[in-house]
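queue> holo job accepted (adenosine-5'-diphosphate)
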Amino acid sequence: MPRLKKVRQLPLNRWIDLALFLFLLSFPTWQNTYWVYIMSGIMAYMIFALSLDLLWGYTGLMSMGHSVLFGSGGYMIGIASAWANQADWIKFDQLPWFLALLSSPLGAFLAALLLPGLIALFIGLFMFSGKIRGVFFSLITLALAGIAELFVINQSRYTHGDSGITVTSRTLFSNADSQRLTDQQFYFVVLAFLLGSYLLCLWLVNTRTGKVLQGIRENESRLTYLGYKPAAFKLFIFVLSGMMAGLAGMLFVRVQGSINHSSIGINLATLVLVWVAVGGRGNLTGALIGTLLLQFSETKLNSVFSGISADFAQYWKLVLGLLLLLIVFVIPRGLIGVLLDYQQSRQDRDRKAAIMQKEVNRHGANP
Amino acid sequence: MAPTLNPEAAPVLLETRGLSVNFNGFQALSDISLSIRQGELRVIIGPNGAGKTTFMDLITAKARPSAGQVLFEGQDITGKSAAEIARRYKIGRKFQGPNVFDNMTVAENIELAIAGYESLPQSLFFRASAAFRHRVTEILEQIELADYRDFMATDLSHGQRQWLEIGMVFAQDPKLIILDEPTSGMTADETKKTGEMIKKLKGEHTILVVEHDMDFVRQVADYVTVFNFGKLLVEGTLEAVQQNPEVQAVYLKEAD
Ligand SMILES: Nc1ncnc2c1ncn2[C@@H]1O[C@H](COP(=O)(O)OP(=O)(O)O)[C@@H](O)[C@H]1O
Ligand SMILES: [Mg+2]
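queue> job finished
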């Protein structure tokens, strides 16, 4: 049965993906509304982690400021919602031309995808035509996250500065309270977007384009001598990843019902790096599992320890920092990476045995 | 060992005119003029640091010449980009020391190298046809890696990685194949097999090889160019070159 053989050779992590989605699908049936709400936020973060995995895990471009794209998507929704509901801090009576799209909820939805895409396009054009690579790409993106955070704090006329914005939650194309879905309903909206994003990523990384992206990660200059122009591919994946991060930001804001500068700054940019690093880069599963494990633990431990110590958040950061160091030094390929390496080494052993057997047979036939 | 094609009759494929390069005051190549005919297998030999790799860098746009021109099929390709030289003019190059995609499988390395799908839309909507898959298998057999197609390139032996990169150049289906020390680090057995791989292409393909291993040179070469200190010392059949006292002085004694 060739088809059965194909199923058996499926990378182990695809089974984990399947189990994960079945788990997520059933989750609301046996969990209370609070946990359904928490898990909705985690799923939005999973989309964010997937978007970083495309860029970092597959293409080797380690963005240390990916939150800029997440947050700019989120802020589009935030400003649109504040404007529609005429929040008391709004002091202007007309949206400026550059925010005109936000006058309708559908426009805000599009803006939350387009603005991050445009930001990625401009950063990408500047970086990839200037041949900025490796650690310089990381440092510049990190700086951009710092700048973006200061920017939204300073532009309080549109962002309500330090305090952030309250947003109509659990809607997609509306800023009216009457249109809000239940926590359970919106959970499935986020899950549908997560599944769609995952399938898009899975398709993409298995196309020839996906292989070119991995080629960029492995040996970018070699590709040019095969006739490829890596800059176009890098720009493409950066813009796609940016739009996906914007989608994640939009969904997160609609789950949480608010946004502030921490969603666009260095804090979140670092967190998503940790999720992907701990789960394992370049296989999609790691991004999903890393985000789930760490965000779930944080919420769970927070509820356990906050009664004992008010400084839980500080301790949690310490734990994350130590965990990252541990991962980097002990299992640099992350949790799922270890699993895949194990599968690969077993398969290699079987293949080597088969090659040896072939040699023996050949020499046996004509000694 | 007679050449399969009469080299005098075939048209010139690659010509360099007065090619020179200067790296911060160091003259790595001076005034190299040579031409290679269609279907020819040319070997460049010369001691370490003679400028052989640099010469290939100038042809494939890894480095820019300070003077001179590279002509390919009569067109001036000096100053074109590396991607254009690979894609449009179809010059394929194997680098010195294996230069492959380490954490990708052997088959993926070959698939990426197969020419004709280099643009973003082409690669996005690419679907492997039966003919495409057949071509991949054919190349893997040619380079003795058919049983290794699902191994990661990084898990191959040094010699196998050299073969893999040779296979990538074959996959490009180039008009000119450039191989920089394809047998370095190979066992004697592997070197011999490599010689056979290359000899099989003789006549159909135009090949430019840099090589150190004199047994290998004897195995494949008809016509040899000797570089020394960035200059073209002498050209001719292997026999003629070996008789040349200057060559004996600078190179052959040292290598053998
Ligand atoms: N990019 C470069 N910058 C400076 N010097 C170089 C560069 N590339 C090559 N060289 C020098 O040019 C000389 C020729 O090198 P190379 O072409 O690699 O020799 P070969 O391949 O014949 O051994 C060497 O002395 C080398 O150090
Ligand atoms: Mg060299």
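queue> The mean pLDDT of chain B is 92.
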